[in-house]
Amino acid sequence: MNRRPLPALPPAPRKRRARPGREGRTAALFLLPSLLGTAVFVLLPFAETVRRSFFDGLGRSFTGLANYRSVLQNGAFRLAAGNTARFLCTCVPVLLLVSLGLALGVRAVGRRRDGRPTVRGNVFRTSFLLPMAIPVASIVVLWQALFAQNGLVNGALQALGAQPVDFMGTGAAFWVLVFTYVWKNSGYDMILWLAGLDGIPGELYEAAAVDGANARQQFFWITLPNLLPTLALVGVLSLLNSFKAFREAFLVGGAYPHESMYLLQHLFNNWFLSLDLPRLTAAAVLTALAISGLILALQRFWTKGE
């Protein structure tokens, strides 16, 4: 019996190979508007700031490092730099701990056993994010209502038999600023922590539970090690956001608040109003170098820890 031969299969289509460098040119084309905007509005002004830091007020006579020596010898700069360093070393660790605690609490009470979020969890997330949506002027009114001489806090202290405290005229002003910063930014950092927690595989917790690990052991041996990349991100963003607490302090205390909350932003604002451009540019360059060095050191530490 003769069998008819099977028809020949058509040749497989050749895969088109991307041309070398084509993806790079396409990516560069999409990034070009952003890169141009960054260069025009950020890099070029900063380069001009660096140049002006070595010249006089008119930007014509070269003065070398005289502006930097004047800044470092200035008492107001040393006071503002010390207060800013104290503020960063206090509020950033407190914010990281508070926001992580909020994230763990929301995750514990805001999820069903199957992993789906509950209505209560969504309400908690929204309520903790509300401080970010409150305008600065409203926060200033809240400050005055709480911490004024006849405010709510002093009223509660008098009701308990304690003496009222001049919050904005004593060293307590610094802690009011720390409280405001933590209260306003904890919800934002909580969302970042939640994203990091969602990235941890649930199989790790199931395997640890089978092996007899309790909740504390799972937290220190599974949760914390897997949150190191999130810690790096949250830490850097918290550090940068800490320089945005100036608006509330300026609106409440003015250009010259109590010395405990006199920050670098106050100093820069006062030097700008007096057109002291040589010292202003030199101090801005020193601050930028300090922030960049701190971020690079933290990044190197976290990368080494991984």
Question: Care to describe what's here?
Answer:
By secondary structure, the protein is mainly alpha-helical. Helices cover 71% and strands 0% of the residues. It has a single domain, classed as MetI-like (MetI-like fold), CATH 1.10.3720. Helix 7 packs antiparallel against helix 10. The chain is globular.
Indicate the topology.
Layout: H1 22-52, H2 66-72, H3 75-109, H4 119-133, H5 136-147, H6 152-159, H7 172-198, H8 202-210, H9 215-226, H10 228-241, H11 246-253, H12 264-273, H13 277-305
- Average pLDDT number: 82
Number of domains: 1
Determine the CATH superfamily: MetI-like
The CATH architecture can be given as Orthogonal Bundle
Taking Cα atoms only, what radius of gyration do you get, to the nearest Å? Answer: 28 Å
H/E element order: HHHHHHHHHHHHH
CATH fold-level name:
MetI-like fold
The main pleated sheet reads as: none
Measured by DSSP, the beta-strand proportion falls in under 5%
- What's the end-to-end separation, in Å? 71 Å
Q: What's the tally of helices?
A: 13
Region (Disordered): 1-21
Subcellular location: Cell membrane
Keywords: Cell membrane, Membrane, Transmembrane, Transmembrane helix, Transport
Domain ABC transmembrane type-1: 83-298
